[in-house]
Amino acid sequence: MTSRLRLLWGALVLSAAAAITVAVIPPAHAADAVLSQNRPVTASSQESAGTPAAAGVDGNTGTRWSSAFAPTQWFQVDLGTAATVSRIDIAWENAYAKAFSIQFSSDGSAYTQVYATTTGPGGRQSITANGTARYVRINLTTRALAAYGYSFWEFQVFGAAGPAIGRAINGLTLVNNASRKPILGPGPLADGTVVDLTRLANRNLSVRADLAAGAAPASVAFTMTGAKGSSYTRTETQQPYFLCNDYADCPLLATPDTYTLTAQAYTSTGAQLGAPYTVHFTVTGTATAQSPVDVLFVGNSLIGTATAATGEDTPALVRHLASAAGRTVNVTEVIHFGNTLQQTWDGGEVAAALSGAKQYDFIVLQEYSTLVATNPAQATNTLVNTYAPTFARSLKPGGRVVLFKNWALVDPAPFATRAAETAAIDTGYAAMSASLGAANLVAPVSDEFETIIAANGTSYLIVADGKHPNDTAIYLDAATLYGILLRESPRSLPDLYLTAAVASNMRATAAAAIGY
């Protein structure tokens, strides 16, 4: 049976099942709310790009999650903070699970089983499952259709949300202690991240806890455990909050294993500040097979300007460099010259790209040239309230958002100097990154521009209009994004249309800025 036929047949079965069983599904109590809708999800697999995990919590009974055709699978939703759960409703497709269990967890590491069955009926199920959980996982072990996997239209967790305690820690950044720069690409760490030691400049590594906007903890406690039995704990009482002290090497980060790392912020009285931040990642000393990377670029002429030498804009040049290095980058572009990100969204095209029909390893967002510096509140509002709600359905597990940090223009108005404009850009992007709940990083393009302009002047990178990049700058931007998206140093990339000396300088500047 093809996926399309299964989808249509499943819809008929679901409709019939819902009609039969609706009378026995208890209505939501006054205090009950759907806690899972559009929350971040992870799954053991997906059948295709058209049946992503995010479709299982999008509130749309016309879309579904479907796993690979294997007997043992799982699906997990992150409620964002600890919540009181009362029940779970599952609207199964025809490929339902006969045997499955449901587990609760507060940290994504230790789980407690709250329900299990070996006689699941399929159709529409409503399961009483009382308890407190941030993570709700369903483990699927016996298929109704042995030739397929598992699939459901909706997985809904009901209950009462916990208090709005916010998030004190917004990310865990991998740091190159030798250069004191974040290693962008492998970091910030996310569930499923693979730190490939063979692709790093050195093994002098640590991890820094990055704070959410407005958070001011008195201390951060780290706990790191390895699957092979290793463990490390430390409490840091001074900013910046490092796993192994400021820029001190962490031996476990250079030791191949699979790790769980949790960071918990505390107040001066010892009370927990926000929920713990936990990631599960792997360190390997063996070169890993490299899969194609799917990237969505949203922006305007700062990344859409094409080189005179090759006719390629920044995303296309990233793809070109990747191909030259034997890698594959699949590029989707939504670029409209002169637009803010909000204007591009209002045009409708980017909303379609972020519908969840396709998922990306990275989403690169490039805002209007001066907006972040002159109106950071507007830029942040667009990011947090317009784009961020789409990330759970549009990013693959472990996927990241990249904020493209624009450079200061030649004319700094309304700022008195380019230095003042650059400072405002730095502040604005740091605040935007801290305000965003999804795993994200800032591509330090502005920093690189200032390094090169200090030695060569603005005309070395910016054309006569005082705003747009020239061919050298586009190469610099592409080399930077290559390092981030492909998670390896850009130092050995080809010169393409630049002289060897100029290209080498651009690559070295990019590599240093992103931690390689």
State the gist of this model.
24% of the residues lie in helices and 32% in strands.
Topology, element by element:
Elements: H1 3-21, E1 33-34, E2 41-43, E3 65-66, E4 73-92, E5 97-105, E6 112-117, E7 124-143, E8 151-160, E9 169-176, E10 181-182, E11 194-196, E12 205-211, E13 219-226, E14 231-236, E15 241-242, E16 257-266, E17 272-284, E18 293-299, H2 301-304, H3 314-324, E19 329-335, H4 341-346, H5 349-353, E20 360-366, H6 371-374, H7 376-387, H8 391-394, E21 395-404, H9 418-435, E22 440-443, H10 445-456, H11 471-486, H12 500-513
Parallel strand pairs: 11-17, 18-19, 18-20, 20-21, 21-22
Antiparallel strand pairs: 1-8, 2-4, 3-8, 4-7, 4-8, 5-6, 5-7, 9-10, 9-12, 12-15, 13-14, 13-16, 16-17
**What is the CA-based Rg, rounded?**
24 Å
Average pLDDT over all residues: 89
Q: Quaternary arrangement of the chains shown?
A: single chain
Note the gap between the termini: 49 Å
Work out the number of β strands.
22
Ranges where pLDDT stays below 50 over 5 or more residues in a row are 1-31
Shape: globular
Q: What does it look like?
A:
By secondary structure, this protein is of the alpha+beta class. The N terminus is likely disordered. It is 24% helix and 32% strand. Strands 1, 2, 3, 4, 5, 6, 7 and 8 form an 8-stranded antiparallel β-sheet that branches. InterPro entries: FA58C, Galactose-bd-like_sf, SGNH_hydro_sf, TAT_signal. Pfam families: F5_F8_type_C.
